[in-house]
Design brief:
Layout: E1 2-6, E2 9-16, E3 24-28, E4 50-54, H1 71-85, E5 90-95, H2 97-108, E6 113-119, H3 128-141, H4 144-154, H5 157-162, H6 164-175, H7 179-190, E7 205-210, H8 218-225, E8 232-236, H9 243-246, H10 248-260
Parallel strand pairs: 3-4, 3-5, 5-6, 6-7, 7-8
Antiparallel strand pairs: 1-2, 2-4
Helix pairs in contact: 1-2, 3-7, 4-6
């Protein structure tokens, strides 16, 4: 395990390979998860691919949950981590809120980008009303109150039926996150709309979504892809919101094809 202090908070990360590698992918995790959601990809990625994983603020083993934070803080954390590790160019891959963090990073630090992968995300996710309702539910009932609904959005019915032990494990991952960190991230999602940012993206961009995603359905992700000039849009079959867990082979194939072109 590796830790560093960014913006006054401890960040848990793991760098596998070289910070200056051409095929470096920086992964940003989704709400209620930590960087372990990307681990199933490792057996599928080639030896020439370097990887940076990190737990976003208030999630996993990273700190910063004790004080409220917003999207600008999440973006600043990622930029600071890249600078601390000497990363000058990379492909950034963000899932869900991690995708919004990557969009915000493009707005703040386009110099860091070689390419961009936006996975099961959009410039705006859900509505302010939905986020406010979820936050109220969690404030009164804790993360346990939202866990079953999250699992329905995260994974397909087949995964629920055939991967019961894994489902229980990912449910534990969510419920063991910091309540305060989860709520601040919900507020960041509620308050963020990067629709005006996407048309400014000038690096090769790939949008990916599971065909059964209950959080950001394919039509929502495809609509976002139309805002980025020349963006590529791909749907992964038999998959919901977290393709790195449910269909790692398919996601890895898309990533490797994408980063090796051009």
């Amino acid at each position: 395990m590796a830790f560093t202090s960014i913006n006054g908070n401890v960040v848990h990360y793991e760098l596998i390979g070289e910070a200056k590698a051409k095929n470096l992918i920086v992964f940003s995790n989704g709400l209620g998860t930590d960087f372990r959601i990307w681990l199933p990809l490792f057996d599928e990625l080639g030896d020439d691919v370097s990887v940076l994983l990190y737990d976003s603020r208030g999630h996993g083993l990273s700190g910063g949950a004790e004080k409220p934070f917003g999207m600008a803080d999440l973006v600043s954390d990622l930029a600071g981590l890249c600078d601390a590790l000497g990363i000058r160019k990379a492909t950034f891959c963000g899932l869900s809120v991690g995708g919004l963090v990557c969009q915000g990073l493009w707005q703040a630090r386009p110099d860091l980008f070689r390419k961009l992968v936006l996975c099961d995300t959009a410039p705006r996710i859900a509505t302010a009303e939905i986020w406010s309702e979820r936050m109220s539910m969690i404030e009164s009932g804790g993360l346990e109150a939202a866990a079953d609904g999250a699992m329905q959005r995260w994974f397909t019915p087949v995964f629920h039926e055939e991967q019961k032990d894994a489902l229980a494990g990912y449910r534990l991952m969510m419920t063991r996150q910091s309540k305060a960190g989860y709520l601040s991230t919900c507020a960041a999602l509620r308050d963020t709309d990067f629709s005006a940012v996407l048309p400014t993206i000038s690096v090769p961009t790939l949008f990916v979504v599971g065909d059964q995603d209950g959080s950001t359905p394919p039509e929502v992700v495809e609509k976002g892809s139309t805002l980025v000039p020349g963006a590529r849009f791909e749907v992964i079959e038999d998959c919901a919101h977290i393709p790195s867990v449910e269909q790692p082979e398919a996601l890895a194939a898309l990533l490797q094809d994408f980063i090796r072109k051009g």
